[in-house]
């Protein structure tokens, strides 16, 4: 017999800092203010034409010319090349992408985007020669360039160009691959998303967008959770044939690209693109699939014992104590308080985004699922949410605003290094998410502490551990399709479910239908992106631990955020005293998770929920 779930009183939050008055905020993006008035806005054409003129001028000056004979010539050409990064040529595509995220049925945005993508790809091909030719300079000139004092501001850029040389094709071949990338990959992904985004389920007499359902069903009470999941399953299964063909096509596209470039491992392009190494990824996976899996199994066994009932996969995060609801207004106050307390600059960034229509909060029919933060060189930073006034929505707000803070602080770098690796991005987001978590615990009652701690551990298991199970499933799908030529959707779903079982252990009953998320989660289309969550969660846990011991470590955190992509991921971490290439570092992150699981068990015993 299951035990009755404890409930807690409403969470009452009192700010610990004196917060500036927040003017009226907007809960929707205002793309007309941030970008263009419509797809026909004449500024779109003006921005693209300005880009075309600059690119044509650059190509005329350097294409088929001798500019790689000396350090001084290379530096002059590189300076001119990097000035192209500051142009607004990409702004129309950002604008149209955001419109499609808000409304999958926005055919005008889709049509305009397809036309502009082709045009801008052709434009990019006109300057493709630059990095290809730069990569071919002699080893002697490479050495001279990397040691030249005037070249130091470009050093990491040069290092990456020289490293990529071994995987480059001819200019003509690279142009062909660029031109085909939209049709062979982008349109496949967009098509599946479009079909899903238009779906809805009938829920309690109303139509609920499928993405809203997918975001909330696991947070519902048991009966509603299983009822909603039963309505979701047929939709995901109905998408199966489309998703199967899409994923098989994407894997073959990836395989062809790897073979052409001479890459031996399916994930090598990802690690290089993330400014990291295969060795770092492989070390992380090795630690998580051994000790990490044992910790998650221990935690789920503990939860099952407390709850006193069988748990299916969608029940894995069922609360032993129901976490309090936190409405969006309160969530904003909490995040503001944490940000201002850590660094007033961060609080000011959050306020400006709320007031400048840069945060889209609520689920709507046709709106894409999940949450993200988007920022590019010279682009406004936007946050996309599907909030439902839960503790999960609070965490998501803190997470995405962590990305936003990182984006803003990285903009202190020159345009060349204004971006950041996915690995450091996921570190920044989970760092601020965990700061909010600790702050809530400091104001909670004992029952609330248990509820909050459980919620935060659930999330860490999901990012630190489950994402490696997802990564391993994705790798198996890639290797199977490469070996056999194809894989059915049922096989993909079963594969994912099997890897879920491996990290959950015997306490959780996993069915093949639990792997249906392979149909809708974009993560499986992003070529091993998912390991970045685990990497970031571990890195941020260590950073948070050091800040807890010494608040002066906040300066190191800001250093981390402002480095952008001016050096490799491993080197950025070394700047703040962490070696993310070592097995013992990943184990240090797991030590912190283990301590929280132990604390959770202790609190449950003190409350009489566990003998």
Describe this structure in words.
The chain is mainly alpha-helical and 611 residues long. The protein is built from 24 helices and 7 strands. The strands form 3 sheets. The chain has a 3-stranded mixed beta sheet, covered by helices on one side. Strands 1-2 form a two-stranded antiparallel ribbon. A hairpin with a 2-residue loop joins strand 1 and strand 2. The longest helix is centred in the last third of the chain and has 39 residues, at 446-484. The mean pLDDT is 93.
Summarize the SSE layout with pairings:
Layout: H1 31-34, H2 42-62, H3 71-83, H4 91-102, H5 107-125, H6 128-134, H7 139-147, H8 155-164, H9 171-197, E1 200-203, E2 206-209, H10 210-216, H11 222-238, H12 240-261, H13 268-273, H14 278-307, E3 311-312, H15 328-342, H16 344-355, E4 359-360, E5 372-374, E6 382-384, H17 391-410, H18 422-442, H19 446-484, H20 489-504, E7 508-509, H21 531-549, H22 554-562, H23 569-575, H24 583-606
Parallel strand pairs: 3-7, 4-6
Antiparallel strand pairs: 1-2, 5-6
